[in-house]
Amino acid sequence: MRRLRSERRRRGVIVPLIGLMACVLSACEGGKPVSAPSPSPPIGIAATTPAPRGGSSTPTGSAAPVDVYAHDRPGMLSPVVAGFPERVYVPNSESNTVSVIDPHTYQVVRTFPVGRRPQHVVPSWDLKTLWVNNNDGNSLTPIDPMTGKEGKPVSVDDPYNLYFSPDGRSALVMAERENRLDFLNPRTMQRRYSLPMPCRGINHADFTADETLMLASCEFSGQLVVIDIADRKVRAVIDLADGVTRRKGLRRAMPKDRSMPSGMGHDSMEHDLMRHGRLEHDSMGHDSMDHDSMHGRMPYPNMPQDVKLSPDGTTFYVADMAKNGVWVVDAGKFRVTGFIPTGAGAHGLYVSRDSKVLYVSNRGAGSVSVISFALGRPIATWPIPGGGSPDMGGVSADGRSLWLSGRYNGVVYVFDTGTGRLIRTINVGAGPHGLAIYPQPGRYSLGHTGVFR
User: Fold this and answer.
1) Which residue from 189, 197, 236 is spatially nearest to 220, judged by alpha carbons?
2) Residue 380: CB partners within 8 Å, gap ≥ 6?
3) Could you tell me the pTM of the whole model?
4) How much is the CA Rg of the chain, to the nearest whole Å?
5) Is it true that the peptide bond before 439 is cis, omega within 30 degrees of 0?
6) What is the pLDDT at residue 20?
7) Per-position DSSP letters for 377-433, written without gaps between them
8) Which helix (H) or strand (E) holds 14?
9) How many helices (H) and strands (E) are present in the chain, helices listed first?
10) What's the rounded Cα separation, in Å, for the pair 5 and 12?
11) DSSP string, 341-389
12) Among 140, 202, 300, 305, whose CB has the most other CB atoms within 10 angstroms?
């Protein structure tokens, strides 16, 4: 009798286990087959699960917090870049050259000519090439980061800045003076499609956590534009003057800034003074801009610059050099939720390697503000002794230093991120702009001077 009961108990355990195993194998989907595994990502790029569409900070079913910069930690170099020598590439906009700096010796090891008005040095999506954006020369000059040697320039219309779609299928040229976002083949740089902008002066951007939408700044109309990259459509425009987000009735801005006030076009003398750093000094020795008689006042009430997503994917930060601070934008609803004063000429935005703070270069104030993501306010200010013009750059691969171009001073600044102290000032060419430190941690590049995921 006991043997019979024991047998029944064993059967009572075994049958449910068999049923459970069958359920797991069929994914408990009522008999539906399990989906085939996704194709493997390119070499050096780990598989990733995107967040839900619209930039939500936490993926469905995940208890762990999101950090879009989780793969940008010190030491997390892709195998693709592991053998590249560490260098800093500085485009000198007024000299039409690129200076190459050895970050270990702080010495310029090479300077070579490129096209007219180089603005930024941009890592390619696949991490294999650096592209110099020759804005007025209408070309891109490739650099081999293994050798540091430049290649033959490729003709590209109005490449003020360069980004890449997160899937790597398109190079995205910020055609600033033409008010277009151009979609190019990322290898040949041949144009496939042009998306007219309903704003003026598109030039910097970042992507939502799910990598479906781009938020870009439009400097000359004081607006932000939301772009669906896959559908190649503008989804919304945010007017920073009143904080209103418009999703309907979006009209194309006139190309070549013909809709701007007379004398304020991209190629005008006034714009050169503003954008490219030909400054005069007032009687007190402060920098002032020739194009404006009011001691350097900006020509527009809002002039958004760099854009950066918060580590948790919930918020965009947008530097505004006319408002002297950083706008805070909800990354899901695309609405302005706040403003953080930092300093005159707020310009570039860079996330620390531990994802805890945001570095803001204040080009007019000659300082760097450090914003805590947790507190939502500045916790430190790093002044440049004697003043300066910190512009664009990036954080070193080990996170210990912040490198910024000195736009109006013909130098590169190096800050110790641990102490905030300026540790080096390196002479380069005239009008240094969007320098790139390379290589950097990350699986793939989204563009600009180094936006990695």
Assistant:
1) 197
2) 369, 370, 420
3) 0.81
4) 25
5) yes
6) 39
7) EEEEEEEPTT---EEEEEE-TTSSEEEEEETTTTEEEEEETTT--EEEEEE-SSSB-
8) helix 2-25
9) 2, 34
10) 10
11) E--TTEEEEEE-TTSSEEEEEETTTTEEEEEETTTTEEEEEEEPTT---
12) 202
- Cβ atoms of 433 and 392 within 8 Å: the answer is yes
State residue 15 phi and psi, 5-degree precision: -60, -50
pLDDT of residue 251: 75
* Structure tokens belonging to residue 102: 């050895």
Look over the chain and give the mean of its residue pLDDT values, rounded to a whole number.
83
Residues in Cβ contact with 251 at an 8 Å cutoff, skipping those fewer than 6 apart: 198
* Amino acid at site 333: K
pLDDT of residue 64: 64
Q: Is residue 50 within 8 Å of 209, Cβ to Cβ?
A: yes
Residue 411 amino acid letter: V
Residue 107: predicted pLDDT = 98
SS3 172: strand
For residue 122, what are the β-bridge partners?
A: 131
- CA-based nearest residue to 99, from 114, 300, 336, 108: 108
pLDDT at 300: 83
Q: Name residue 393's beta-bridge partners.
A: 404
Q: What pLDDT sits at residue 51?
A: 41
- CA of 200: how far to CAs of 196, 238, 258, in Å? 10, 13, 10
Name beta bridge partners: 351. 358
Exposed / middle / buried, residue 327 (Cβ in 10 Å: 0-12, 13-18, 19+): buried
Question: Which string of DSSP letters, residue by residue, matches 194-257?
Answer: EEE-SSS-EEEEEE-TTSSEEEEEETTTTEEEEEETTTTEEEEEEETTTTEEE-S---PPPGGG
3-state secondary structure of 77: coil
Q: 58 and 438 in contact (C-beta within 8 Å)?
A: no
Parallel, antiparallel, or unpaired for β 118-123 and 130-134? Answer: antiparallel
pLDDT for 133-150, tens place per residue?
A: 999 999 999 999 999 999
Name residues whose C-beta falls within 8 Å of residue 72's C-beta, 6 or more positions apart in sequence: 351, 353, 440, 441, 442, 452, 453
Using the 8-state DSSP alphabet, how is residue 75 labeled? Answer: T
Rounded CA separation 244/374 (Å) = 26
- What is each CA distance from 379 to 178, 350, 384, 388, in whole angstroms? 39, 15, 17, 21
